[in-house]
């Protein structure tokens, strides 16, 4: 393992740097990656953000977005950049399987791998680790990595601040989750002082729904919401037919699960969506209920205690039934 003094020394000279994050990147994945990117380019590094897949349109306004390389469709260019990199930053994920085929390239690369993340149980593939599961977002860790580890608060400019604010806002569910501590609010205050325009960022991320997305949400809530009061659990499903009919794009299903969790008394919410090649589950929970446990045990996934995801190769109906059959095992935790 590298120490911070050696890393600081390395970063004192321009380096070839790749920054990557998990597939289907969310606000924290893109916010932390582009926040770090906007920091590194001020020091003359040749930095490139490479995402394993595309990401939602509501993140495309982030400063530096135009320089992002999406692996899918640009495999050769991405492989060259990864192969030639001196340093690879792995942000907001901690297992190489989360970056799809890029995992093999990153795993084989001789570059120094720096892991900055807040998910449980990191895999051992890194040379330096800045990891804290209590952080509300990886963007929060990028802020403290820059200001406390690298002692470079002066380089938190408007672009860096805007990206990091976006990561913290989205991963803390707009400052609502229990890990939104007073320290997080102090950091976001610093980010606003550094130029992040909080109300505008909120507007860009959350108030940009298409009409069809809103109508799709209406269908989900009126036709495909099932509340299982016996288990304080609510399920929303989305089938292929509706996704096609309403032309629902990548990321446009984000947040729908929270409507199920907003029902009074509900402790566990599931959004189960029929993707072309698999069924994807998004679970959210309240308090101590371990949503990640269900995802890990039954749906080849994982995540945080209160926000987790997984997949299944079964049909939508089969997965919903499987999910319901799992609930008795957790009845005590869901109802006590
Ligand atoms: P979402 O429901 O938004 O897809 O995911 C919620 C959380 O669970 C995110 O923090 C994400 O990192 C994590 N997550 C989602 N899918 C998976 C998965 O397949 N494996 C693991 N380890 N974590 C996941
Ligand atoms: Mn995150």
Keywords:
40% helix, six-stranded parallel sheet, 336 residues, 2 domains, Diaminopimelate Epimerase, Chain A, domain 1, binds manganese (II) ion, 12 strands, single chain, alpha/beta, binds guanosine-5'-monophosphate, six-stranded mixed sheet, inorganic pyrophosphatase (n-terminal core)
Summarize the structure.
Helices cover 40% and strands 18% of the residues.
What does this structure look like?
This protein is α/β, with parallel strands linked by helices. It folds into two domains: 4-206, inorganic pyrophosphatase (n-terminal core), CATH 3.90.1640.10; 211-335, Diaminopimelate Epimerase, Chain A, domain 1 (Roll), CATH 3.10.310.30. The chain has 14 helices and twelve strands. The protein has helices at residues 4-10, 27-40, 75-84, 102-108, 138-149, 158-171, 182-193, 198-206, 211-223, 240-245, 256-261, 291-298, 316-326, 331-335, and strands spanning 16-21, 46-51, 69-70, 87-91, 112-117, 128-131, 225-228, 233-238, 268-274, 279-285, 302-303, 307-312. Strands 3-2-1-4-5-6 form a six-stranded parallel β-sheet, sandwiched between helices. Strands 7-8-9-10-12-11 form a six-stranded mixed β-sheet. The longest helix is centred in the N-terminal third of the chain and has 14 residues, at 27-40. The mean pLDDT is 97.
């Amino acid at each position: 393992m590298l120490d911070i003094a050696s890393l600081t020394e390395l970063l004192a000279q321009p380096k070839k740097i790749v920054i990557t994050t998990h597939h289907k990147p969310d606000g924290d994945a893109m916010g932390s990656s582009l926040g770090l990117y906007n920091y590194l380019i001020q020091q003359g590094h040749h930095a490139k953000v490479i995402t394993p897949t595309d990401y939602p349109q509501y993140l495309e306004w982030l400063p530096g977005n135009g320089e992002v390389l999406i692996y899918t469709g640009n495999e050769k260019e991405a492989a060259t950049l990864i192969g030639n990199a001196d340093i690879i930053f792995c942000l907001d994920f901690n297992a190489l399987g989360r970056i799809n085929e890029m995992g093999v390239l990153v795993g084989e690369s001789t570059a120094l791998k720096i892991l900055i993340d807040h998910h449980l149980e990191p895999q051992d593939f890194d040379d330096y680790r800045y990891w804290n599961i209590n952080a509300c977002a990886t963007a929060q860790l990028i802020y403290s990595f820059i200001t406390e580890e690298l002692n470079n608060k002066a380089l938190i400019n408007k672009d860096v601040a805007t990206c990091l604010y976006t990561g913290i806002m989205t991963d803390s569910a707009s400052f609502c989750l229990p890990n939104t501590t007073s320290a997080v609010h102090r950091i976001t205050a610093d980010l606003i002082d550094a130029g992040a325009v909080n109300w505008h960022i909120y507007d860009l991320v959350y108030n940009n729904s298409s009409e069809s997305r809103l109508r799709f949400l209406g269908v989900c809530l009126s036709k495909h919401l099932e509340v299982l009061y016996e288990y304080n659990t609510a399920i929303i499903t989305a089938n292929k037919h509706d996704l096609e009919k309403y032309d629902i794009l990548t990321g446009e299903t984000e947040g729908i699960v929270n409507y199920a969790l907003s029902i009074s008394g509900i402790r566990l919410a599931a959004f189960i969506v029929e993707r072309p090649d698999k069924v994807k589950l998004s679970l959210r929970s309240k308090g101590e209920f371990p949503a990640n446990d269900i995802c890990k045990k039954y749906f080849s996934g994982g995540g945080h205690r209160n926000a987790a995801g997984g997949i299944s190769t079964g049909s939508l109906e089969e997965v919903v039934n499987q999910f319901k059959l799992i609930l008795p095992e957790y009845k005590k935790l869901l109802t006590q």
